[in-house]
Write a structure and sequence with these properties.
This protein is of the alpha+beta class. The protein has four helices and five strands, in the order H-E-H-H-E-E-E-H-E. It has a five-stranded mixed sheet. It is globular. About 20% of the residues are buried.
Length: about 120
């Protein structure tokens, strides 16, 4: 985070945080990308960029965030999708080329992509 040097800088950060919170509350969709060194080495950075691009292209509001390593390095890149009213789904080995299918099936059609699922949390 850049240094805050003025009250205007602080207000800008506050407005951005409020916007992110509004998206999370309104859409109820959070996408979490594992960005530990193991995930980055496996292509998580490219996967995250593909997710952001696909969401923007399809005009889907979702909160996208990152986490560090959770200890399943062999399954990286890991992507969790959590939506209001449904459980959290962890997808494994998600390459950037798989992202359009994942967004289409899970977020638009409401169907879990079973062949990519590593875990489900209800």
């Amino acid at each position: 985070m850049p240094k805050l040097k003025s009250l205007d800088d602080l207000k800008r950060v506050r407005e951005e945080a409020q916007k992110d919170l509004k998206v999370r509350l309104d859409t109820g969709t959070t996408i979490i990308v594992g960005m530990g060194t193991c995930g980055i080495a496996a292509g998580a950075r490219e996967t995250m960029h593909a997710i952001l691009e696909e969401l923007q292209k399809r005009e889907i509001d979702a909160h996208v965030t990152t986490v560090g390593c959770i200890g399943m390095c062999a399954s990286e890149p890991l992507v969790d999708i959590e939506q209001a009213g449904t459980g959290r789904i962890t997808y494994a080995n998600v390459k950037a080329t798989m992202v359009p299918r994942l967004i289409e099936e899970h977020l638009i059609n409401g169907r879990v992509v079973d062949d990519l699922v590593l875990a489900r949390v209800s």
